[in-house]
Amino acid sequence: MATAHWTESGTPRSARWHSESATPPPARVVVADDRTKADTACRLAREGTALLWRGDFHNGRHLLQAMGRRLDRVPPGPGDSPAETFHLHRRARGHRARLLSGLLVLLEDDHCLRLRRAPDVRLACAEAYGPPREPTLVPLRELLGVIGAHEWRRKGVPVPALGARVHPHYGVFSPVRGEYVDLVARAPLPAPAGPRTGPRTAFDLGTGTGVLAAVLARRGVGRVVATDISTRAMACARDNVRGLGLAGQVEVTGPALFPDGRADLIVCNPPWIPARPTSALEQGVYDQDGAMLRDFLGGLAGHLRPGGEGWLVLSDLAEHLGLRTRRDLRAAIAAAGLRVAGRLDTRPRHPRARDAADPLHAARSAEVTSLWRLTAG
């Protein structure tokens, strides 16, 4: 357990340190309040000094926003290639996040935030961090994410393919990009060997919120086994399966990629970008060296029943960024002893695909998300 230390009113203090990005506790912490200026806060953050906020909660949010505006004044320049532009952009965003994470707040031993005009964050923190144990220092930026995640969880995300909402937990990728869900909802189900007319068993690998497992169950698959390596995701998927009334059809298990046995249909929507995640929260987007994609392809043939299919749901954004080629993907499919039985494509509908100010706009505007229908042999 990491501990952060500081001095306040002449008295040495310490508290447990928590960071979702696994950054070490700050070596130096000073107290900041409503008198602290954004320029001063940015200078201290650049020097490696963290600020423990003791002022008004909303003023702390305003200070964080003002720091962000100052850090955004010099955007990263374009690289000589799409891949270099991506890496420069990501490096700049990571540097920005580290500096902004230097503005801290103290959660008391009951997860209470004792600041003027502070909201009651106890339930949101218990959902994200577990039961309270002791006073804990966390970045204000992270706490705002915890509060936002609580609202997502409370309100839910509408999924038209289900005619219902799913409720993402903190740290679990939310199905706000509905095009990949729609692909799974409309792809033709395989017709396995034998007298059955449709899949009897399906696996949903890396289930996250459980949304794809729920879609398969609603499409009539009798038994769906959903897996994930994240305990947060497994808890989230179980909650959603129960809430949708599908607990009798969907089993959530893990931590693992493949469950035991074979299935008529195996679905996997791996992280789309082959780059190293810098926190647990990024693992739904970034997959270092394409490890999950490689493991899915490598294990698929050995887990399919005769006549079964594997559905790989994957964006080609990495191809437009120069991080992977279509030839690489097809070679990996062939090397795993698989063949492509068909493919369904769709265009993204999210606003960033139309944001010309985004440094990665050229790649995002050309992106296509595909459902690759794969069979053994």
Automatic annotation (TrEMBL):
Single GO biological process annotation from the record: methylation
Superkingdom of the source species: Bacteria
Entry annotated with the keyword Methyltransferase: yes
Keywords tagged on the record: Methyltransferase, Transferase
Keyword hit for Methyltransferase: yes
Gene Ontology terms for molecular function: nucleic acid binding; protein-glutamine N-methyltransferase activity
Region described as Disordered: 1-27
Feature: compositional bias, Polar residues: 1-12
Domain Methyltransferase small: 199-315
PANTHER family: HEMK METHYLTRANSFERASE, MTRF1L RELEASE FACTOR GLUTAMINE METHYLTRANSFERASE
Annotated protein name in UniProt: Class I SAM-dependent methyltransferase
Species whose genome carries this gene: Nonomuraea montanisoli
